[in-house]
Amino acid sequence: MSLSIEEKRERWRERARIRRAAKPDDDKAYMRQWRKDHPRDPLVESIRAQTERMKYRLALIKVLGGGCEKCGITNPVVLEIDHRSGDGAEERRKNRTCEDRGWYLRASKDLEAKNKFACLCANCHKIKTYEMDEKARTNRIYPRLRYEDLTLH
Ligand SMILES: [Zn+2]
């Protein structure tokens, strides 16, 4: 179903007329009641959220070059968004998440996205994190052991 812009406007005007007639002084109460009378279908909402999340995630991957910066793999299943400066954990603490649809949408529209984030596959991301020793920045109180320092007998 696709309405022309004029049809959409008319529908919007009609809804506004009904709303004003029903509750001339209290739009919010009317809207609360409307939402109560028209409950969201959780399944539909969940599918919509997932679809948007995947769409915005792909958009961000495209902005960041469409594949792993190191090895070039383009399968989105294994691609991850790397915080170039290693402050991903900090941002996750601050915003509670770095992977919901809103975050992906904002990041994909961010003009600085290419400077802030890199697209890496899971393997390259893990290696980069290990080499940068990013985890040591959190709150480690004892020195981090590294594979290079092990002496095997
Ligand atoms: Zn890679």
Structure explained in plain terms:
The protein is mainly alpha-helical and 153 residues long. The chain has helices spanning 5-22, 27-37, 42-63, 88-95, 101-109, 113-116, 122-132; strands at 79-83, 117-121. It folds into two domains: 5-36; 48-138, no CATH class. Helices cover 54% and strands 7% of the residues. Helix 3 packs parallel to helix 5 (101-109). The radius of gyration is 24 Å and the shape is elongated. The protein binds zinc ion.
- Helix run count: 7
**Contiguous uncertain segments of 5+ residues:** none
How many structural domains are formed by the residues?
Answer: 2
Distance between the termini: 71 Å
User: Which molecules are bound besides the chains?
Assistant: zinc ion
Q: From N to C, what is the helix and strand string?
A: HHHEHHHEH
**How many beta-strand segments?**
2
What class would the helix/strand composition place it in? mainly alpha
Helix content: 40-55%
Rounded to the nearest angstrom, the radius of gyration is 24 Å
What's the short version?
The chain is mostly helical. It contains 7 helices and 2 strands, in the order αααβαααβα. The chain has 2 domains: 5-36; 48-138, no CATH class.
